Every structure is written in C-alpha cells, then in structure tokens.
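Need tokens for this chain, all 144 residues.
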Amino acid sequence: MNMLSKLAACAVATAASFAILPSGASAQSTTAYPEKCKSQGMGMSKADMPSGGMQMGEMTDYQKASMEGMKDMHMNMMQGMMKKDADLSFVCGMIAHHMGAISMSEVELKYGDNDEAKQMARKIIEAQKKEIEEMSKWVDKEAK
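Here are the structure tokens for all 144 residues:
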C-alpha cells in the first residue's frame, strides 16, 4: 500500500472513530474554539486519538501536520455536536470544521510548492476566519 493510500485509510479510520467516541476540546493555532461550544465530561485527549494503524514515524512532516490538524478539528467538532440544542450544535460543529480548513490551509502554505494551491489556501484562511468570527459572535449571543 503506498503512502497516500495509507494516509487515506488512516483518515477514514480516524473519522469513523469520531462518530462513536467522545473527545476533548483544544484550540487551533489560529483561533480558539469558543468555550460555549465545549461540552462537559468529554475527557479524551489528542493522545488518545487513533491514528488508523499508521505510525507517526512512518509519516512525512506534511502528513504529521495534517493529522494533528485533523485531530484538533474532530475533537472540537465532537464537542460542539454534543450540545442538546440543534442550532448551537450545528454552529459549533461548523466553527470546528472551519478551523480544520484553516489548519489544512496552513499546512499547505508551509509544505506546498504550487503557487495556485497556496493562493487557494490563502483565500480559504481569509474566508474561514471571517466566518468563524461571525459564528462565534452568534454563539456568544445565543448560547445559554
């Protein structure tokens, strides 16, 4: 199995595990996940997250950075999705999702060499930060 296939399998396994396992919250390097989106009693850390059977030592620096960002995104997304209010759950989940897009884009800017891909990453960062700010304001106003 080539490295790309292994990474894809790892991503699928990791994503599948988040559908059933609770997780803890963490902040992305660019934006903090809103406190009102966090759920009590979610005690899983990034260290507890499965890596799909792939050893971190087998991954390139790019893949390691991508996986760290994915773990952060999924931990925060699960926090938000545990909210009892459907609207709050949706918005908190979307904030985490957008934070993941920023993380992926930052990895592209650091490791990528294609100018067009890097420009896409810059546009994503700009747009997602704006939307995170809007959604975070909504959470502050609406969350009880």
